[in-house]
Specification:
It is a single chain. This protein has 7 helices and no strands. The N and C termini lie far apart (33 Å). Helix 2 packs across helix 6, helix 3 packs across helix 7 and helix 4 packs across helix 7. With 139 residues, the protein is mainly α. Helix content is 73%, strand content 0%.
Length: 139
């Protein structure tokens, strides 16, 4: 079985989040990253328990398989997802519990819906947005 992030389970044990760049939108970006972390975790679980080929469809939507650097692109995306999964714990802890619950509920439902309705393109768009968010926080 293939997962989007082969080491996501291991990635959850990563070090705390990196220092984010300053600015008015930093808190919103951090909350977005926390939501992304939840989305990836649930998406991976849904793929492993339901449709392992869904990961291939997502990756094909993210990166042209015929590209000469496709493997490098996929490796970069996977590394970013693992970093995000392990790097959001401190931000999650700073959020209000009700906000965390609402965010987790929303992102879990989104991930489940993407898999259940075979929406690999939408899942790829979500992943792309999350990678951009992480890059903005760490850029």
């Amino acid at each position: 079985m293939r997962r989007i992030v082969p080491t996501l389970a291991i990635g959850m044990v990563m070090l705390g989040g990196p220092v984010a760049c300053g600015g008015a939108n930093t808190e919103a970006l951090q909350q977005e990253a926390v939501g992304c972390s939840t989305y990836f975790t649930v998406l991976n679980d849904q793929i492993l328990n339901g449709d392992p080929a869904f990961a291939d469809r997502i990756m094909a939507a993210l990166v042209d398989p015929a590209a000469t650097d496709a493997d490098e692109q996929l490796e970069t995306i996977n590394r970013t997802l693992v970093d995000m999964a392990g790097g959001t714990d401190a931000w999650r802890a700073e959020m209000e519990p009700a906000d965390v619950t609402a965010l987790e509920s929303e992102q879990s439902a989104l991930a489940r819906r993407h898999v259940a309705e075979d929406r690999s393109t939408e899942a790829a768009e979500r992943i792309s947005t999350c990678v951009e968010t992480w890059e903005r926080l760490n850029g």
